[in-house]
Design brief:
The structure holds two protein chains of two kinds. Chain A is mainly alpha-helical. In chain A, 21% of the residues lie in helices and 4% in strands. The N and C termini of chain B lie far apart (61 Å). The chains are: A mainly alpha, B alpha/beta.
Chain lengths: 57, 354
């Protein structure tokens, strides 16, 4: 492809293409964990029961 | 899978710290979808508000029976029956079969997990066949109630037990329960008391919990991540019990349990590989028993959540599991026999028959 598409101008500022950061092992575990781990239902810190919307829960 | 550098349990603690978010991803949208579907069925039961401070059983105490591995080793129902305990017995859906096959009909059963698969098995799954069993070895492998390993026989037995006892039983049925569970509960004739589990902080703007409340006007209860903790919350925050003991709440495994028999084994192998499992399982010494147990990230998170809820509870909390890792400042770790003796003393609620 690069043989066919060639730039026909020179940009004034150098174009820096950021290198894609390789996924760390931990990030990979977390990505997989997202699909598999978790409780049966949520836990909400500092709350008990809400009987009504006006309640202090 | 490459060998990772984390020490024993380190990765497990990292996963546990992410469990709020992971749980939402896993069950949040599914639970809300189930709740929307169940709106059409709310007239098949009543609000759990009907149980608020209701005289469920005698006295001011309750015993929660969950289905941890200590059930097989400590058999709490034997002591409960022998004592003639008359307080409330609240069972998780997973412990219902243990109760019924031992001749105890719980005063209340609780279910909360929104998953379509597996949960209905605690109620006896209609049309369970070999093909379905072949697809999923969860119940054969798991270390909760080992009798579930004989799946077809148990399924027949629990179906029969619920045919017999269902109409006399009450269930606190979370609105997020899946269609197979709700259909089966209705079929058994259990008396339904609906409640919403909290999905997030109801005081937040755009709260999903507050929106759910507005849609069905049912009380929202913090279930603490799992059905055992939901039982505990209902015992004191809804039923108003002042002394609540939990049994079968190991939230961990005995040190001699093979990893393969743990709840999240296949998931953890998928995530980190068999060779890295030591990094995700967390070893904890129980100083009350001078014994070691190990746990996985989800159970570790359940433990932290329970301890936070116990600190804020308007009851005295006893852990009578006689095993596991649920101990801390606001939990009295005690033998079940002590709790049964204490609740039988005259003038303390008189929970035990003479």
């Amino acid at each position: 492809m690069s043989d066919v598409l060639k730039g026909n101008f020179k940009p004034q500022n150098a174009v820096v293409v950021p290198e894609e950061k390789p996924e760390t092992l931990e990030e990979r575990f977390e990505r997989t964990a997202l699909k598999r781990l978790g409780g049966s239902i949520a836990f909400v810190s500092k709350k008990k029961v809400m009987w009504d919307l006006k309640d202090k829960v | 899978m490459p060998i990772i550098s984390e020490g024993p349990g380190e990765l497990g603690r990292k996963f546990a710290a992410e469990m709020d978010r992971l749980t939402w991803e896993k069950v949040g949208p599914m639970g809300l979808e189930n709740a929307a579907r169940n709106r059409a069925l709310l007239d098949r039961g009543q609000s759990i508000a009907a149980l608020r401070d209701a005289p469920l059983a005698t006295g001011d105490s309750a015993i929660v029976i969950a289905a941890g591995p200590s059930i097989a080793r400590r058999d709490p129902i034997r002591a409960i029956k022998a004592s003639g305990y008359k307080g409330a017995i609240i069972a998780t859906d997973s412990a219902m079969y243990y109760c019924l096959r031992n001749g105890v009909v719980p005063d209340l059963v609780v279910t909360v997990d929104p998953n379509f698969l597996r949960v209905v098995r605690w109620f006896g799954q209609p049309n369970l066949d070999d093909e379905e069993l072949h697809k999923d070895d969860y119940f054969r492998r798991q270390d909760m109630d080992a009798s579930f390993a004989d799946e077809l026989r148990v399924n027949r037995e629990i179906t029969e037990l619920l045919r017999r006892h269902g109409p006399q039983m009450r269930i606190a049925l979370a609105t997020c329960a899946s269609q197979p569970v709700v259909d089966r509960v209705i079929e058994t004739g259990m008396r339904i008391f609906w409640w919403n589990p909290m999905f997030d902080d109801p005081d937040l703007p755009e709260s999903k919990t507050a929106a759910l409340f507005r849609s069905n006007r049912l009380p929202c209860i913090n279930a603490g991540g799992n059905v055992g903790t939901a039982c505990y919350m209902i015992a004191h925050a809804v039923l108003g019990k002042k002394r609540v003991a939990v049994t079968g709440m190991d939230l961990s495994y005995y040190a001699d349990t093979p990893y393969r028999n743990t709840q999240y084994y296949t998931d953890l192998v998928e995530i980190v590989g068999e060779e890295n499992l030591d990094a995700v399982f967390i070893k904890i010494r129980n100083p009350h028993l001078d014994a070691w147990f190990y746990t996985d990230p989800a159970y570790y998170w359940f433990r932290e959540a329970f301890l936070e809820l116990a600190a804020d509870a308007e009851c005295v909390t006893y852990n009578c599991t006689e095993g596991g890792i649920l101990f801390g400042d606001n939990v009295r770790f005690a033998p079940l026999a002590d709790f049964l003796r204490e609740t039988s003393k005259p003038g303390t609620g008189a929970d035990v028959a003479g």
